[in-house]
């Protein structure tokens, strides 16, 4: 059973940084993609970034490009989201997600519906 456990959220001032971690367990993830999404109160869950586990290919939402960096540590089965230059509009619950094995017909990896597994979320609050 796949488990994803996020950590690293908290309260930070605008312009500050946080690093989120997502510890993955329950199977090997060699043909998986891992994503970070966020959801603010009253809004839909939105894409932040994804990374392919094997090749390390990445993609970012325009709203976070240049400020956030997704990475993974294969030995630790952990995915990270380094968030710099944080803005109040980055305030949300951040979710780690996993999908795999990657297969033909899979939906776009920037869509929540494409993912099979989700963590419980971690709150990020950016004060102005």
Low-confidence stretches: none
Total count of helical runs of at least 4 residues: 0
Mean pLDDT: 96
H and E string: EEEEEEEEEEE
Cα end-to-end separation: 40 Å
Count of DSSP strands:
11
Share of residues in helices: under 10%
Question: Which secondary-structure class do the elements indicate?
Answer: mainly beta
Coarse shape: globular
Major beta sheet, specifics? 7 strands, mixed
Radius of gyration: 14 Å
Strand content: over 45%
Element layout with pairings:
Elements: E1 3-7, E2 10-13, E3 18-25, E4 33-39, E5 46-52, E6 58-60, E7 68-73, E8 78-83, E9 92-99, E10 117-118, E11 122-127
Parallel strand pairs: 2-11
Antiparallel strand pairs: 1-3, 3-8, 4-5, 4-9, 5-6, 7-8, 9-10, 9-11
Structural commentary:
The protein is mainly beta. Helices cover 0% and strands 48% of the residues. It has no helices and 11 strands. It has strands at residues 3-7, 10-13, 18-25, 33-39, 46-52, 58-60, 68-73, 78-83, 92-99, 117-118, 122-127. Strands 2, 4, 5, 6, 9, 10 and 11 form a 7-stranded mixed β-sheet that branches. Strands 1-3-8-7 form a 4-stranded antiparallel β-sheet, with no helix packed on it. It is globular, with a radius of gyration of 14 Å.
Which keywords apply here?
128 residues; mainly beta; seven-stranded mixed sheet
Describe the structure concisely.
This protein is mainly β. It has strands spanning 3-7, 10-13, 18-25, 33-39, 46-52, 58-60, 68-73, 78-83, 92-99, 117-118, 122-127.
